[in-house]
Amino acid sequence: MRIVLLGFGSVGQGIARAIHTKDLGITITGCADSRSGVVDDAGIDIGAALERKQKTGYCGDTRITPMDVVATAEYDVLVEVTPTNVTTGEPASSHIRTAIERGKHVVTSNKGPIALAYRDLQAAARRNGVCLKYEATVCGAIPLINAMQEGLAGNTVTRLLGVLNGTCNYILTRMSEEGLTYEQALMEARELGYAEADPTYDVKGIDAAIKLVILANTVLHLDKTLDDVETTGIDLLTPDALRLADEQDCTIRLIGEIVPGDGVLRVSPRIIPKTHPLVVEGTLNAVTVETDMAGEITFIGRGAGSTETASAVISDLLSIRDRYVQGS
Amino acid sequence: MKLEMRDTPGQLVAALKPISALGGNIIAVIHQRDASSTAESLDVQIVLELPEGRLDRLLEMLKAEGVNVVRIGEERLLHMSSLILIGHLMHTDLSDTVDRIDRTGFAEVTEMSLVMPAINAPSSARITIRSVNAEDMRKAIDILRAVADQKDILIIEPLEEM
Ligand SMILES: NC(=O)c1ccc[n+]([C@@H]2O[C@H](COP(=O)([O-])OP(=O)(O)OC[C@H]3O[C@@H](n4cnc5c(N)ncnc54)[C@H](OP(=O)(O)O)[C@@H]3O)[C@@H](O)[C@H]2O)c1
Fold first, then answer.
1. Among residues B44, B72, B100, which one ends one of the domains?
2. Can you give the CATH number for the domain in which A111 is found?
3. Is A304 close to ligand 1, i.e. is its CB under 6 Å away?
4. Phi and psi of B9, rounded to 5°?
5. Domain of B66?
6. Range of the domain at A158
7. Chain A interface residues (partner B, CB cutoff 8 A)
8. Which value does ipTM take for this structure?
C-alpha cells in the first residue's frame, strides 16, 4: 500500500519512523512539510527524509508544494497530519478534498476538518467510494473511535465522560498532589513540553470541546459545532479549591461530557472521587462510555505523543488496507 | 429526617446512641451558628435516616437520655451534592448566594467551608446542598449556576451526585 504524508512534524515523523523500522507493508511515495516536498512513485527514502528534516528543517525540495504532492503523486491513502486549524480547517480540508476527488482514501490526525466538516467530507468520500478515517483526532493512542464504532456497535450510548486533554490533566494532577498554583503547574508543564507556548486552546477547554464535537458527530450521530459546547477551562482554579475537594477524598479534573439524549455537550472542571476510574495521572487520557448493553466501559491511555499518535494513524491505515486495497 | 436540639455538653453523645441502637443512619450533624444562641448552647441539627415506624420509640429514648429535642423535621434530605465556588465570594455577598438556595424551600445549604485568600485574590468555598429528591437538586444547582453567572463566580460541580 502506498501513502503520502502531509505534515512532517511530531506525528508525521512518528509515522515515518514506524513505517521505516517496522515491516508494515506500507510505502511512502510522497511527503511534505510547510516549505518543501518530495515525491517518488517507487517509494521515497524514508531514512534520508528524516535525516534531512533533522539537519535542514526541510523534508524535501522547496520547489515542491504540499498540494503538488496531494495532487500529483501515486498513492492509495493520503495521511493528513498538518496543524489543526479549528476556524477554517485549512490547509487540511483542501488537501483532504483533493485526495478524495482523486479517489484516494484519507487518514488524518487533524481535528480541524473533522470537527468542522465531517458530514461533507464523509459524503464526498462515499460518493467517491473511498474511506475517511480519523482515529488519531481523539485521545491519541486510545482506539476509542474504533471501539465505539465496531466494538460497541448496536449499543445505545447514554453518556460519555472523558479526560480528553493531557495538558490540563497534568496541571491538575500537579496542583492536587503538590499544592502548586495553576501558574506554577503550567510553567512546569511548559518546561516538560506538555504545554504549548500559548496554552489557551488547552487550558480554556477548547481542545477538549473540539474532541467532544468530533465524538458527537462521528460516533454519536449528533450534529454539533464548537459553539454548542458549554466550555469552562481550568485557568481560574485555585489550590484552595483542590484542597477543599481533597478534604472529601475527591479531586478536580477537566471532564468532557456528552449526554446524547439531551444533546448536552459540556467541558468543565468537575469534582470527582479519587477512586473514580477517570482519575488518571499526568498526561494520560481516559474515557468512560455508559451504554445500555455493555454497561460502563473505561478506556485509559496516552492521548498524545509522536509514536502514540502514529499508532492510531497506522491502525487506520492497516484497516483500510485490509478492506479496500487489494494486491498491495 | 431532621432533629434539632440544644447542644449543651454531653447532649450530642446522648442523642447519637439511641439513633444507632434503633438502626438509624446519621447523615450529618450540623451546628447552627445562630445569632440568638449563646456560647455554650448552640443549636445542633442531626440529619438522619430511620427505618419506618421507629420515630416514637426514638423520641422516647431521647427523652429518657435527657435530650431536649426542639424540632423534628420530617423532610427527607437524602440527596446531597458538594460544589466548589471560586471568585470574589465575599464581595459578591456569599450569604445572599447561599440564601437563594435556602429560600427555595426545597433545598438547603447544610455545610460550608470558606478559605480566605490573600487580599484581592479570589476565594474558594465548598458548599453542600441537600434536597429531598434529585429533581429538586437539579433545580437548586440551576439556581446556583444562574447566580454564579451573574456574580462572575466559577462553580465546580460534582461529576455525580452523592
Ligand atoms: N502531537 C500529538 O501528540 C497529536 C495528537 C493527536 C493529534 N495531533 C494532531 O496531529 C496534527 C500534527 O500534529 P504535530 O504534533 O505533528 O504538529 P507539528 O509537530 O507542529 O507538525 C506539523 C507539521 O505540518 C507541517 N505543516 C504546517 N503547515 C503546513 C502546510 N500548509 N502544508 C503542509 N505541511 C504543513 C509542518 O511543517 P514544518 O515542519 O515545515 O513546520 C510540520 O511538519 C495536528 O493537527 C495535531 O492537532 C497531534
1. B72
2. 3.40.50.720
3. yes
4. -50, 135
5. 2-72
6. 145-303
7. 161, 232, 236-238, 240-241, 243-245, 247-248, 250, 252, 255, 268-273, 276, 278
8. 0.87
Residue located via cell numbers 502506498: A2
CA pair distance A96, A132, nearest whole angstrom: 9
Same domain, B67 and B83: no
**Nearest residue CA, atom 41 of ligand 1?**
A34
Each residue's pLDDT expressed in tens, for chain A with a length of 328 residues: 999 999 999 999 999 999 999 999 999 999 999 999 999 999 999 999 999 999 999 999 999 999 999 999 999 999 999 999 999 999 999 999 999 999 999 999 999 999 999 999 999 999 999 999 999 999 999 999 999 999 999 999 999 999 999 999 999 999 999 999 999 999 999 999 999 889 999 999 999 999 999 999 999 999 999 999 999 999 999 999 999 999 999 999 999 999 999 999 999 999 999 999 999 999 999 999 999 999 999 999 999 999 999 999 999 999 999 998 765 5
Q: Do B135 and B118 reside in the same domain of the chain? A: yes
- pTM of this prediction? 0.85
Q: Give the sheet arrangement for strand B2-7, strand by strand.
A: B25-32, B42-49, B2-7, B69-73
User: Which residues of chain B have a CB within 8 Å of the CB of A267?
Assistant: none
Closest-CA residue, ligand 1 atom 30, reads A34
Between the CA of A220 and the centroid of ligand 1 the distance, in Å, is 27
Give me A47's grid cell: 531514512
Please calculate the CA angle A208-A180-B95 and round it to the nearest 5 degrees: 80
Whether A285 and A314 map to the same domain: the answer is no
Grid cell 485557568 — which residue?
A: A235
Chain B residues with beta carbon closer than 8 angstroms to that of A205: none
Q: Are residues B94 and B144 in the same domain?
A: yes
Asked whether A158 and A224 are in contact (CB, 8 A), the reply is no
Q: Does B82 touch chain A (CB under 8 A)?
A: yes
Q: Of the candidates B40, B72, B104, which is a domain's last residue?
A: B72
What CATH number did the domain enclosing B9 receive? 3.30.70.260
Instruction: Report the nearest atom of ligand 1 relative to the CA of A8.
Output: 43
Cβ-Cβ pairs closer than 8 A, A with B, add up to: 60
For B34, phi and psi rounded to 5 degrees? -85, 130
Preceding omega of A91 cis (within 30 degrees of 0): yes
* Residues from chain B contacting residue A272 (CB–CB below 8 Å): 158-159
Q: B118 at the A interface (CB within 8 A)?
A: no
* DSSP assignment string, A128-188: TT--EE-GGGSSTTS-HHHIIIIITTTPPEEEEEEE--HHHHHHHHHHHHH---HHHHHHH
